[in-house]
Amino acid sequence: VMICAYMCYEGSQESAEKSLEYYAMRRTYDLQGVTIASQRRFVFYFDKYLKLKCNYPVPNQHLILKEVVLHHA
Fold it and tell me: Residue 16: CB partners within 8 Å, gap ≥ 6?
């Protein structure tokens, strides 16, 4: 996953889809490289982040998690 994201970042592949295809072609025999949906989504999200040139500010202070709420489904 990180290799695919890095290929997007450094520009060797033009899109998330191309980086995932290239990875599958080079690393597997069955062309089933990254198959876990959440990992594939991460590559697509990261590619979109790069293309939109998002610049999220880093806070100068620590963030503190104050609450976690779990609901039964």
Answer: 4, 8, 43, 44, 46, 47, 48
Structure tokens at 25: 């072609």
With contact defined as beta carbons under 8 Å apart, do 40 and 50 qualify? no
Euclidean distance between CA atoms 21 and 32, whole angstroms: 9
Q: Report the C-alpha dihedral over residues 71, 45, 2, 37, rounded to 10 degrees.
A: 50
**Residues 35, 21: contact at Cβ < 8 Å?**
no
Residue range 59-68, pLDDT digits in tens: 677 778 899 8
Sequential DSSP letters for 4-61 = HHHHHHHTSSSSHHHHHHHHHHHH-SSS--S--HHHHHHHHHHHHHHHTT--PPPPSS
**pTM summary value:** 0.69
